[in-house]
Design brief:
Blueprint (H helix, E strand, L loop, with lengths): L2 H15 L11 H17 L2 H28 L6 H7 L5 H10 L4 H13 L5 H33 L4 H12 L3 H24 L3 H18 L4 H14 L5 H32 L4
Length: about 280
């Protein structure tokens, strides 16, 4: 057996030693890592159609966050400045994420680190990771486009927001330079990876809701780029406005996806995994 194989065997043994903590105790790093790897491995065993449907569902469910942020932006537009409105929407931004995470739909940014961990643990290949990422992204984007088309029509019909609201929000997301969007998306991916890690570490639903709310509200308040809800935002500005071209939409979306992937895979999955591995003899 090579040194590398021995090292991997030691890592697997250490993970197997992780036992469930007493109810009053916090989970250890090893326990959280073990649960994350097991959750990630389960997703790899799902059929392609199941992954696609679950990820499409996540894209649809995030539309409820978009519906609420457009509604808040529109209804308080006479009371607050535009800058204040972009901070205020942070209060309703977490809704869709709570629905997705607690409902266990597959969201790319939440699952990025989760799906990377089995690869780092040598249970799956890099190619299998890229394939499943592709399926999840496709499902999330299709779900976002579909719910977006529904909301762009029903919003003005119900009087909860106008087409101008959709355009203003989308142009605000897309007007930054691509390097800024990339770094912003890396930070968002990092936070979403931590969200997944912290949700696994918590033991009750209320704690999970608080974690999801705090992290996603922070993302919204500072304006970090999330590729899946951002897909709906910029797609709306492209369809209903004149300033966002198809090329600009594609560049913004691609940059956000790459940034989110880097943030989740490197800053959470790799660092958390290496922190554990480096303690294994």
């Amino acid at each position: 057996m090579s040194e590398e194989e021995k090292k991997q065997q030691n890592i697997d043994q250490e993970l197997e030693k992780s036992e469930t903590s007493e109810e009053s105790q916090a989970k250890s790093h090893g326990e959280i890592l073990k649960e994350q790897i097991c959750e990630g491995k389960k997703i790899y065993t799902l059929s392609k159609s199941s992954v696609l449907i679950s990820s499409l569902t996540a894209g649809l469910e995030l539309g409820f966050s978009y519906m609420m942020l457009c509604s808040v932006f529109f209804h308080f537009s006479d009371s607050f400045s535009e800058d204040t409105l972009f901070k205020l929407i942070a209060l309703v931004y977490p809704l869709g994420f709570i629905l997705v995470v607690l409902g266990q739909s597959i969201l790319f940014t939440e699952q990025t680190s989760l799906l990377t961990l089995p690869v780092l643990n040598r249970k799956h290949s890099l190619m299998s990771l890229l394939r499943i990422w592709g399926l999840v992204i496709l499902g999330n984007l299709i779900g976002g486009w579909l719910i977006g088309l529904v909301l762009f029509w029903i919003g003005p019909q119900l009087g909860i927001f106008e087409a101008e609201t959709v355009v203003t929000i989308g142009e605000h997301v897309a007007h930054f330079s691509l390097p800024v969007i990339l770094v912003s998306a890396i930070l968002a991916g990092w936070m979403m990876g931590l969200l997944s890690w912290l949700v696994t570490s918590s033991k009750d639903t209320v704690s999970r809701i608080i974690i999801i709310f705090l992290i996603t509200a922070t993302m919204a308040f500072v304006g970090l780029h999330h590729s899946i809800i951002g897909n709906i935002e910029v797609f709306g500005a492209y369809l209903l406005g004149t300033d966002i071209s198809l090329g600009r939409y594609l560049w913004v979306q691609s940059t956000a996806l790459i940034g989110n992937a880097i943030g989740g895979a490197f800053f959470v999955a790799l660092l958390k995994y290496r922190a554990f591995v480096n303690n294994v003899n």
